[in-house]
Records
---
Amino acid sequence: MIQAIQGKDVVYKKTQAVTYDGYFVDSPGEYLENRRYYSALLVSSFRCDVVGLIQDSTKKNSVYPPKFADMFNKAVVGIVTKVDLENSDPEKAEEFLRRAGVKHILRTSSFENLGIDQLRGYLSESERHEV
Ligand SMILES: Nc1nc2c(ncn2[C@@H]2O[C@H](COP(=O)(O)OP(=O)(O)OP(=O)(O)O)[C@@H](O)[C@H]2O)c(=O)[nH]1
Ligand SMILES: [Mg+2]
C-alpha cells in the first residue's frame, strides 16, 4: 500500500518491525494481534497526522476491537484492501472498520491501482481532517 501510494513498484516485503518509508510509518500486522503491542502502535503514531487502519477485504474476521480507532485521538482512515480479488467482500470489511470506530473508509487495490489516488488525496489534505 505504501509503495502504491508513492507510485513505486509493488513488491512483497514483510514488515518485520516498525519501519519508515518517506512520510510513512509502517508497523507489522502482528502488533495488532497482541494487545501488549498496542502501546508500541500508540507511540509510533505520536507524530503522525493520520492513522490508517487496514482491513483485508478477503478476510472473514478482523483484528480490530470495537472503538480501536479512538485510542489514537487523531484522524483515522479505514483502508479496505485487495478489492481486485474475486472473493473480496468490501461491505463486510467496511462493517469491521465501522465497528472499530472508523468514519472515513476507502476501498483499494494496490495491484490494480484502485482507490490509490483518492487515498493519496485524503492524506495530502490530512492537516484539515478532524479527529
Ligand atoms: N490481490 C492483491 N493482493 C495484494 C494486494 N496488496 C497486497 N497483496 C498481497 O497480500 C500479501 C500481504 O501484503 P502486505 O502488503 O505485505 O500486507 P501487510 O499488512 O503489510 O502484512 P505484514 O507486513 O505481514 O504486516 C502479499 O502477498 C501481497 O502481495 C492487492 O491490492 N491485491
Ligand atoms: Mg507490511
---
Amino acid sequence: METKRVVVLGAGFAGLHAVRALSGKPGVEVVLVDRNNHHLFQPLLYQVATAGLEAPQIAFPIRAFLRRRNNVRFLMGNAEGVEPRERVLWVEGQPVPYDYLVVGTGSRTHDFGLPGVAEYGLGLKSLDDAMKIRDRILSACEEAVRTSDPERRRALLTFVVAGGGPTGVELAGALGELRRHVIARDYPDLSPKEVRIVLIEAAPHLLSAFSPGSRAYAQGFLQSLGVELYLNERVVELTPGLVRLHSGRSIPSFTVIWSAGITGQALPGLPTTRGQRVATAPGLHLPDHPSIYVVGDLNYLEGPGGRPYPQVAPTAMQQGALAAKNILRSLRGEPPVAFRYKDKGSMATLGRSQAIAEMGPLKLRGSLAWGAWLAVHLYYLIGFRNRMMVLSNWAYSYFTYDFAVRIMHHRHVFPTPREAPIC
Ligand SMILES: Cc1cc2nc3c(=O)[nH]c(=O)nc-3n(C[C@H](O)[C@H](O)[C@H](O)COP(=O)(O)OP(=O)(O)OC[C@H]3O[C@@H](n4cnc5c(N)ncnc54)[C@H](O)[C@@H]3O)c2cc1C
C-alpha cells in the first residue's frame, strides 16, 4: 500500500489525540507541527499565574510524547498558511506537502476591539501569559510596600478579573486564597483588607454553563473569600491604572486579567465563520476540501440544539481522535463518520477544598467536587513526573496553607505619573 502523509498542525489536546490514533497505523506517516516544543495543559494555567504551580509542571515535551511512535516525526515551526489546492502547509517559508491535513491550532484571547484591552489587559493562553500575570501580581505587592501614595497603592493592590466563566472564577478564587494565606503572611507591611479582588461579568450571574444551584454556590463561596462581584457590568476601556465600566463607574487597577472571551486561531487559506472558527462537515473535514480536517477550539460545528460544540478539552480530544479515524476510513475507501459529542460534564475549582462539578444529573459541590476535580486533572495531565510534581505541590499547599512557587521571573515596572512620587 502506498504510504500517505498526514500532517497534524498543533500539539494541543486535539492534535495529540489525532497523533495517538494514527501512530503505528500501516500506510500512514505523520508529521506533527507546532510552534512550541511542548504540549500545554491549559486548564491548570491559572495555578501557574497565581503561584500555585511551576510552568514546566503543566507542559510536556512533544518529542518525549513521540518516543516509540515510529511513524510520527516532529517539525517545530510557526505555520503561516495553507494552500488547499496544492495540498501544502507553509511553515516558516518552507512547504510541507500533505495528503491529509488535521488543523488544531486552538484559540486565542479575544479583546472584542475594546480600547486598551490588547495593550493593558493580561490574557491567559500560554505559559508566557501565566508568568506575566504572576510577575505582575508579585511586582504590584512589592511596589505597594514602597509607595507612599495612597491612591497608587490602592491601584497596585486591586486585581481585576474580567469574565465570569470557569477561568475567571478559578482565577478569582485562587487570588482570594493568595490574599488570605500568602499576602497576609509574607507582607507584614500590607493589610489583606487593602487587597481588592474584583470579578466582572456582563451576565447577571457567573458560570453560564452551570445550573443555577451550582452558580449560586460558587457565587456565595467567592463572596465569602472577599471577591467583589460586579455582575451585569462590562469593561469598556482599559488605560494604564484604570478600568472604565459600562455603567460609568471606574476601578483604579494596574492588573486586569482578561478572561472574557476567545476567538479561533485560523490560518490564512482556511475559510472562517463565527468567532473566527472554521466550519466543517459533520465528519470534521472542510466541505470543499475533504482532505483537510479541523478539530478542537478552531472547529465550528453545530450540535443537535443548533449550538456549536463547546470549546473545551473533551471536545478537542474527541474530535482529534475522530479526525484520525475518518482519515483511516478514507484510506480504506469508507465514508466518514459524523461527530457525536460525549458530554463529560463541567467542573470549576473555587478555592481550597471547594469546587463545583456537574456530570449529567450528578451535581457535586464543596470538597467532594474538589476531590473529583483533582482526580480528573491529574488523570489528563500528561507525564508521570508532572503528575507527581503537581500532586506534591497541591499536598504542600493543602497542609501548609502556602503557595509553593512565589518566584518572580521579571519584575514589572508600573507606569509612574510624573506628579506621583513613588517613595
Ligand atoms: C486558562 C484556560 C483554562 C481552561 N480550563 C479548561 C477546563 O478546566 N476544562 C476544559 O475542558 N477546558 C478548559 N480550557 C479549554 C481547553 O484548554 C481548550 O478547549 C483546549 O486546549 C483546545 O484544544 P486544541 O487542541 O483545540 O487547542 P490548544 O490546546 O490550544 O492547542 C493548539 C496548539 O496549536 C499550536 N499552534 C497554534 N497556532 C499555530 C501555528 N500557527 N503554527 C504552529 N503551531 C500552532 C499551539 O502552540 C498549541 O500547541 C481552558 C483553557 C484555558 C486557556
